[in-house]
Structure formats: C-alpha cells, structure tokens
Amino acid sequence: MTSESDQNLWRASHQTGNVYPALDQKIDVDLLIIGGGFTGCSAALEAAKSGARVAVLEAQTIGHGGSGRNVGLVNAGLWLPPKEIIKKLGKTAGDKLIQTLGAAPNDVFSLIDREGISCSAIRNGTLHLAHAPSGLKDLEARFRQGNQYGAPLQLLDANETKARTGSNAFHGALFDPRAGTIQPLAYCRGLAQAAAKAGAQIFDQTKVSDLSYENGIWQASANGHVVSAKYVLLATNAYLNGLNGVSQSEFVPVAYSQFATKPLTDAQRQHILPGGEGCWDTALVMTSIRLNEEGRLIIGGIGNEAGPGSAIHAAWARRKLASYYPELANLEFEHQWHGRIAMTSDHIPKVVRLGPNAVSIFGFSGRGIGPGTVFGKSAARALLFDEYDALPIAISDTYKERLRSLRASYFEMGSILTHALPVTRTGPVT
After folding, report:
1. What's the rounded Cα separation, in Å, for the pair 368 and 248?
2. What is the pTM of this model?
3. pLDDT in tens, 344-385
4. What secondary structure does DSSP assign to 329-397, as a single string?
5. Do residues 361 and 233 lie in contact, with contact meaning Cβ atoms separated by under 8 Å?
6. pLDDT digits (tens, 9 = 90+) for 185-224
7. 332 within 8 A of 342, measured Cβ to Cβ
C-alpha cells in the first residue's frame, strides 16, 4: 500500500523536514499558537523575532494540513475581484484588504530570501486562464478593476496564452507578474525552522483537546500536559478537530485534489509552461495546472480523490490533461493527494475573537500562502503589542456559516457530477 507521504508529491519531494518533539511537560509562554501551517508558523516567526516566548502545538506534523497539500501558487489578493471586496466590506476596509494582500507575494518572496528558505521559489507570475468566451469577459473586468488599484496585470490574447502554456485550449489569460510558485510544504517547514531558530518552541504530535481562560491566563491541555499563555492564536483553518472550551471556527470544508505526472521530457518542457507560471482557469469548477522543479505537470480540481468519487476524479484528471496537452494523454500519474479548503460564503478570511487576548484565523477559501503569511505575522503583532490596526481585516466577535454540512456535500457532489461529464474543448480554433 502506498503511504500518504508517497502519494503527496510535496511530502515525497521534501523528506528533510525537521522533526519536532511531542509536548511532554508543562510550559509557560507569552503566545500559544495552535496549528503549524502557514498562518501559525508565520506568527511564530514574527513573535519569536520580537523577543516573545512562543509555542506552536501541531496535532500531526508541521504542514500536515492544507499548507502541505496546497497547489503552491503565491497569488496576490483573493479570489474576489476588487469591486466585490469593496461591496462586501465597504471602501475603507476593502481598500485596506486589497492593498495588503496585493503586496502579499512580495512579503512571501522577501521572507524566503531573508530566511534562506529552500522551497523551489519561482517568481515568474501566474496565469488566470479563460476557459471559454465568458471567462475572457470575466478576466477583462478583473483586468480593469485590478489596474484601477495599481495592480500591474496584463491581459493576454489567445495566441500569447498558447505561447505561455503550450496549449490552445484557452481564449486568453490574465498575467500577474507579482505572483509565483513554491513548494508549499517546504515553505511551511522553512517558516517553522526559522521560527525555531529565533527561539520558538515547536511541538509535533501534540493535539490540543481543551482550551480555557481563567484569571487572565489561557490554559491548553495536550498530551496530558498544560501550556499556559497570555495570548492565543488558533490557526488550524480547515483542520480544526475536537477542541473543547471555545467556539468552533465556522466554514464549509471543500476537498481539492491534485494529480502529478512523471517528469516531462526536456523537449516537452520547452513548450509546456516554459516560463514556469502557475495557472488556474475561470470555470465554475476550477482547474489548476503547474510544473514543479522536476518537471512534473500537476493538475488539480475540486473533489476528494480518496472519497466516493475517487475513480471519477482520477478519470477526469486524465481526460483534462489530454484535452490541454494531447501529447501527454498517456503520461502516467505518479502522485495524487487532496487537502481541505476552509471556504466562507463571502470568500473573505475571518479573524474571530475567542476571548480576551485570543483570536482564530480561518477561511482563506483556497488562497492560503500569501494571506496566511500576512495574517499570521499581523496577528502576532496584534496580540503581543496591541497593534490591531496591522490586521488586514477587523476582528469579528462571532461568525456563523449556514448549512455547512449540506453545502460541503453540494460541493463534492457538484464536482463528481461535473467531472463525470466529457471534457469539451472550448478553446479558439487554431
């Protein structure tokens, strides 16, 4: 039987991650972080470099959740175009979020350089691909709105898109030079390593079962021991499970699967994504494509490759690959894996107050790398130094999602039904 680490390309290609001990004694810290993904590790790094005593408690291993199962696109902004963000948040708050997350790729790549994180970082931009004429109209609107906010976006025609992707399946693309790609698990582990070097205590295999607040101190129970802290950041995103004592983060869990081929030949790499851009399309049930540093082509889409629709999702990936690149129709998939996305109904991340000096951050809706890094750093400063204005979005006292289980089933069944249909070519005739 193939192990999870072998199935997940990022784990198989990054076997040198630090192994951290499990919590085996009582400790006292300034900041307790629950969850060792992008958000938690970014917060730990900032807190430790600021001189605070900080501990990260990870239930599995660093990057086990969505951070280690990510597509690896370091995007600017959110899925939502600027007008939608302004509509939902108002101009002042919306402008702040747009500007902050527009600069997120620069924050990520600067941090990678500064800390010397080895994570196959390539800053050659991303391509948002028009899967149909309607998708191109959407990209034209995003282009106009993005440029109004100073984003250096470029709208590409079908011919330029074909040259960039090596496929004639697309009607055009929106190129964002601010963005890029990384090996996401290596990046997350690099954040943790940098935090540990700065003095943070990091614990693997340490699941927090209870969290309580009394007399100005938070206490977390894990592995039969207690961690006491003045401040708490809950950063489990879509992987929170069984934590007693605080309100649960509310989101819709959505599965996203990826399939990675054998490495392409040198000749194939000359024309298939030769610039190394990461891509995703405008379809309602989105598809992502990218190469990793070995030249494996990775295709992804909504759906659980290990669930009831596993055979359908795998067959879809094969058909989709052939529709984009007929020459790769018979190329073997050597890795397949999935992760969970914490989706919110408005597609805007949440910072929710858990109690005094404690917040939960979740709901990146598939955009974890840039926002997670930025939100984590700003949360550490907000909690430790009362710099709440540094947060990209205001704290909410509560947040509720309606019909979570029903909507999660809807996403999975919708992906199964969509992926069961024949893949049609809607690209321009060439």
Report:
1. 19
2. 0.96
3. 999 999 999 999 999 999 999 999 999 999 999 999 999 999
4. TTPPEEEEEEEEEEE-TT---EEEEEETTEEEEE--TT--HHHHHHHHHHHHHHHHH--GGGSSSPPBS
5. yes
6. 999 999 999 999 999 999 999 999 999 999 999 999 999 9
7. no
